[in-house]
Amino acid sequence: MRRVWVIVTMFIFILSGCGLFGGEKATKEIDPPKDVTYVEDEKGLQEQETAEKEKATETVQRELYLIDKNGFVVPQTFALPKTNAAAKQVLEYLVENGPISQLLPNGFRAVLPADTQVLSVNLKQDGTLVIDFSKEFANYRPEDEKRILQAITWTVTQFDNVKRVKIRMNGHDQNVMPVNGTPISEELSRDDGINIETNGVVDITNTHPVIVYFLAQEGEQTYYVPVTRRVPNSEQDELAAVVKELIKGPSYGSGLLSDFQADAKLLEAPKYENGKVTLNFNEAIYGSVEKNVVSTHVLNCLVLSLTEQPGVESVAITVNGKAELVDESGKPLSEPVTRPQNVNTGSF
User: For the GerMN domain, which residue ranges apply (predicted)?
Assistant: First the structure.
């Protein structure tokens, strides 16, 4: 009897080893191998890393004001990495030998001295951006002093909530620039102008500024340059004064260009309504191109210059009161033209 019991016991043991009585062990044996779970985890990790990289390389268009070969402060638009510290970022891209180095177009240079650090930026409730630079900020060429002020101001005021600028160096307010002593306005803003021309202005107190855009060229690249002109206070129509300055053209020897014909003129005062300006020209606005065709550069200079005026959002053009015009690509100019979001992007 004992021998039979031993045999039965061994038989049960063998069966349990085969999993017929060990459900838990059998389940474990048919579970997927560990490397399958590892591959799934690795795939998830790779997807997460890819998403993080895509987020890190997300870009946004920003205007940086640089110095061109003629010494003008000019906006150039670049795709910069998206960041929550945009004002600090654009200032860092103005530093010579900094991150702008690989992006600089031919004929352009950065405006801030090499090794300059942006120690902090602080936006006050009144729209004043307080910028604190390191001591290297003072290591610039004297002739660049006003250009630096303009480039800083126009670069950071591209942000709607920045209205004016205050400059510090190592925590100390700067009332004058450190090299040539150019006064820094308490209300430093775009109202102080850019690429200011005063040639031929006898009595500056009886004038006021307007901004007009002319052309410049570097190799095959054409770009637009903002210039501040002084016009007499007797000019009652600001919009007409802007057009007049555009037709007058850039100053001799400036290196700037214009597509306007000297005999182009407005046949009547500009009409303004709900943000739109309508200009009625004589046929000289066509210039040397085919009839009914308005030069792209003429159109762009008009739009850029007039939309610098408060309240102006778009420009419509007629000739002898008729709107049967096309641009150089053959596109009808039946609708008013609005200002581009960014200037000198390569497409405008």
Answer: 87-178, 239-328
